[in-house]
């Protein structure tokens, strides 16, 4: 069963079919056969609409074990690598699992590594919440210690890395990737970008790094201007490809 998003105005909750929602708006029992678009009432008569979970909803409602990858960064990873149905993705630095879930919902089969056992457990719960636990294999461990085995397990179509030692994995990318496959590395600090690029130059092509900056626009009666709130810069994304 896949969880549903319960919406009442600007309030949102995620529940599985058969679960109970308790808020100040009343108690609501989610039917086992709930369908997207159904209107459900609490015992106080307040109406919620059941909606299908989409990628941005996972970002908002996954249990967090740190700062998750922003949707705009996940979008750039998918856009620049073309990851999608039928692809095999090796991911490292699972964290909350937002990127792994996005990739799986696009049809990819994802093997992801998380060094912290507690974080890995949360990620597995998040994959179940997102309805992608059948396409995401969350493994506990350091991916750099498993590279020989992963070369045998490969090849992979895409590598997505969000770890402090990503450069060490990039060095082995030519062995891990299929011909034409991509590697995408998220770096919160510019210093690690150089390490990644230098590692990629030995065996990979089409190496490009982007700083991800996004400004939200506020539209009011007075006029339109960039918002003074929100996160502008998030990090750096480096892409490279195997010939």
Automatic annotation (TrEMBL):
- Entry EC no(s): 2.1.1.219
Cellular component terms, GO, for this chain's entry?
Answer: tRNA (m1A) methyltransferase complex
Keyword Cytoplasm (UniProt): no
Q: Which GO terms describe its biological process?
A: tRNA methylation
Question: What InterPro entries does this protein's entry cite?
Answer: SAM-dependent_MTases_sf (IPR029063), TRM61_C (IPR049470), tRNA_MeTrfase_Gcd14 (IPR014816)
Pfam families listed in its UniProt record: GCD14
Q: Which GO terms describe its molecular function?
A: tRNA (adenine(57)-N1)/(adenine(58)-N1)-methyltransferase activity; tRNA (adenine(58)-N1)-methyltransferase activity
Q: Which domain of life is it from?
A: Archaea
Keyword S-adenosyl-L-methionine appears in the UniProt entry: yes
Which PROSITE patterns does the record cross-reference, listed alphabetically?
Answer: SAM_TRM61 (PS51620)
Q: What class of enzyme is it?
A: transferase
Record's keyword terms, sorted: Methyltransferase, S-adenosyl-L-methionine, Transferase, tRNA processing
- Record domain tRNA (adenine(58)-N(1))-methyltransferase catalytic subunit TRM61 C-terminal: where: 85-221
Coiled-coil regions listed: none
Q: What is this protein called?
A: tRNA (Adenine(57)-N(1)/adenine(58)-N(1))-methyltransferase TrmI
- Origin organism is Halolamina pelagica
Gene this protein is translated from: trmI
